[in-house]
Amino acid sequence: MRAVLVKDGKGPIENLYIGEVPEPALGDGDVKVKVKAFGLNRADCAQRMGSYPGLTSDAIMGLEFSGIVVDVAPGVSGFKSGDEVLGLTVGGAYAEYISVHASTVLKKASHLSWAEAAGIPEAFLTAYGILKRTCELKEGDNVLIHAGASGVGIAAIQLARYFGAKTVIATASTKDKLGWLLSIPFGATHVSNYKTENFVDVVKQATDGHGADVVVDPVGQSHWHQNIDALATDGRMGILALMSGSVVKDADLKHVLFKRLRIQGSTLRWRDKAYKEKLVGEFSEIMADITGISGNGKLRVYIHKVYPWAEIQAATREMEDNKNIGKIIAEVV
User: Which superkingdom heads the taxonomic lineage of this protein's source (predicted)?
Assistant: First the structure.
């Protein structure tokens, strides 16, 4: 089968190409899917550069996909050949076929396009997990979400509103992104340009001085001190990535102590099957409320651009240049 590979095992965007690899075997509890589309994620870039822990250089990238079931392992129920599905995986979605455990696969609603379906799993499941499981979001909470225009950020903003947050403050780097985040249904209630203003001031003003009960942070080092200032007493912060780095200088732990803060890392890729199965099961209960951009559901999948997978270099470059509002998707054609 064909798959997106990396010349020399790792390297720059120019090393991406489509080559031939063996078709994946059908494992116990698996379904095999002919991939129609896959979502791009920043973790893929780290993997391409050889900096994602626990992966061999020949591992195929890709954490989410949509497609058609072509085979089902003995004993697997609920799926059959011909079913249209979307799914979450630890890797391998940048390919014509993928074999993945059935517990991390969901049926695709007919109103979703292949591209929209491929944009759901990683973004929405990551956002759901960090909001509901890591940060234990409650109705009436004030929520601060960084990288608001990313796939995960947009999903988290919508889900926070969906679950009854009082305020949702989102940060981004441009006026266009911030305006868009305010304009969408179930969008942010307040926004802050983290490059030109102190988002702590925005949080305090939006919450009448209370602060953020929940902070969702994929940025890391550069936002640490302001996050601590922005958090309310008994606040919870979930860290899901380290885009700006991991080492924080001059961190003062007294603020963590006296505010009784809870700070927790949240990863999804290497979670065990039991965790993912439970997460997918919980999330499936709200799948009916997710629609494409033309739908009328409460939650929407926002696609920045769809590329044919032959243009994987251009698609990856657009993501790395931080030009997207929403998901970048590649169609396998």
Answer: Eukaryota
